[in-house]
Every structure is written in C-alpha cells, then in structure tokens.
Amino acid sequence: MPLKLSIKGMTIFHFQTALYRTNRTEPGPALCFESFNNSCEKFVYPSEIQILLYLFFSAIALTTVCGNLLVIIAIIHFKQLHTPTNYLILSLAVADLLIGGFVMPPSMIRSVETCWYLGDLFCKIHSSADFMLCITSLLHISFISIDRYYAVCHPLQYLNKITPPVITLMIVLSWGLAAFVGFAMIFLELNILGAKEYYSDNVACKGACVIFQTAAASTVSSFIAFGLPTIIAVSTYAKILTIARKQFKSIQHSTHVSQKTNTSVNKSEVKATKTLAIIMGVFFVSISPFFFCNLINPLLNHTIPLALFDVFLWIGYLNSLCNPFVYAFFYRWFRKALRIILLAKIFQANSSRLDLMVKDT
C-alpha cells in the first residue's frame, strides 16, 4: 500500500504521525520522544477522554477473553462436545482469546497514547501476531465450511471424511500457514520490498508501530489473508444451501417414517450450519471494510480519510468478542454449559458426562 498499517493492529493516529519526521528543536506539536530527532508527533487527548477510551477498550478486551475462555472450557470439559466441528470452534476460540489478551491491550495503549512505547522488536512481534491471528480465523472459517459441507450434503460419508486426523491437519494448517505468512512478511520485510529507501526517508519515525506496505504487498496480503478464504467459505456455503434445498424436496416425497427420521437429522445439521454461517457472516462484515480500504487506498493515492482505518480496526476486533454471544444465542448446549461453569458445577463428579442437549426439567 504505501499504507502504514498492520493487517489488524494499527491505530490511525500512528498512521498519521508516521508520515512526519520531526526535529525536536522545531516548535510544534508534542512528540512521542522529545530526545530523538526523528520522533513521531503525538496527539494528546484530554485526560477525561483518555480515561473513557481506556475503560471502553479494556471492557472489549476483557469481555473477549472471558467469553472465548468459556467456550474453550466448555468444549474441553464436556465429553459430549468432543466433535470435529467443535474442535474447529475450539481452535477458533483460542485465536479470538489471543486477540483479546495479547493483541488488543498494546493496540489500546497505542490508540489512546498515539505513540508506541513498547520497543521495536515487540512492535514486530505484535504486528505479526495480529496479522497471523486474522489469517488463522479466516482459515478456520474456511475449514468449518468444508466440515459443514460433508455434514449436510454427504452425511453418510461424514465420519469417513472428517476424521480426527483430518481435523488435526486443518487446525495445524490454519495456525502454521498463518504464522508463516504473518511473521515472514514483517521480519523478512517483504512488505517494503522495493521501497526501503522511501520508507526510511519518508515514513519511519521513533514512536510508531506501523506496517508500511507497497501497493503490490497490499494486494498480495489482502488476497491471501482475506480474498482466498472468503471465496472458499462463501462458495462452499452456497453449495450447501443448494444441495440442502434439493435434499429437503426429496425428503418431502419419501415415506412418512423415512421423512420423520431424515428430517430430524437434517434439521440438526442445518441448524448448526446456519449458526456457523452467521459466525462467518459476522466475521466478514466486521473485517471487510478494513481490507477493502487497505486494498484500494494505494489506487486512490492514499486519499481515504485516516480516521476510517482506526474505526475499521476496532470493528474488526469486535468480531472476536461477538462469537461467544452467537454461540449463546443459537446453541442450547453452550447456554447450559455456561450455567454449569458459572455455578462451579464442573467440579462435581461426572460433570463432564452431562447431557447438554436435553432440556432441563
């Protein structure tokens, strides 16, 4: 891009201040580091606004961590939830928890203070992890769509196709590929390939933690991190919808007994598919504005208002907070597991073998 941003982890104010190289002897705005000649400019919020922002961002991070931690505990503890789909949901919840616990707090400090005070090395680690976790989430959603395809469209082949080794491979690929792309791009400086001199002379300043990207790097990273997984997931769910409709029409012409049995199974799988499709939709809606701006801004000579990037960044973060609430709204098993966990009943004997699908009497 020459966009100065990380895939999910920059603030717009750092993006702005990274555009300037300021001499400390010149009068002007506050600086991130007064003792450095190449310090970034610092935007200073009123103290009341800073407190409100810290409270708001802290609430988002804490809710994200707690919500996804409950999902993780529920799936690990209850034997009934040890299914292929839920293992993918578990791994996705781990990614969301890391976003809330590791990515959001430094981003919060950077957003409020408008400077990066945690060192250059940690800036690279934080930005790499941010990018990695975004890709990880997208790959999980893509693999979940494949799992749903076999569950709904080929139920008789499901147990043979979606086996524990296959699920393990999906999870390993999601984390491994995302880590390679995320960390390689930043630590190998692929994002500034061919523009290192421009970056050094016009962008780099002390107190910024941003990822400068050329137009080529922005296009490639946006396609790998967003475009390709989106195509896979959307096309798969579209195929599921088409086949599910055909199956439903076929069931309607079957015998009464067969219809009753098949419909029961079909409704269970279709409901799970709809829930996961909603999760996918929420994710894409929340992060697509950021990626869209990231992609087109170089083509528009970087004229997109900078404030939009900060807004879209935190909208993207909110996706990690939303997923547990989607589970709670649509999944009876999660609501029941949540009550058991919060009431500390998981410490009772044989609590891991409780039937979460049966209504309480």
TrEMBL record:
Q: Provide GO CC annotations from the record.
A: plasma membrane
The answer to whether the entry has keyword Glycoprotein is: yes
**Does the UniProt entry include the keyword Transmembrane helix?**
yes
Kindly list the residue ranges recorded as spanning the membrane: 51-75, 87-105, 125-146, 166-188, 223-244, 276-299, 311-330
List each copy of the G-protein coupled receptors family 1 profile domain by range: 67-327
How is it placed in the membrane, per its record? Answer: Multi-pass membrane protein
The family line of this record is: Belongs to the G-protein coupled receptor 1 family.
Xref: PANTHER family? HISTAMINE RECEPTOR-RELATED G-PROTEIN COUPLED RECEPTOR, TRACE AMINE-ASSOCIATED RECEPTOR 1
What protein is this chain from?
Trace amine-associated receptor 1
Task: Name the species this protein comes from.
Answer: Triplophysa rosa (Cave loach)
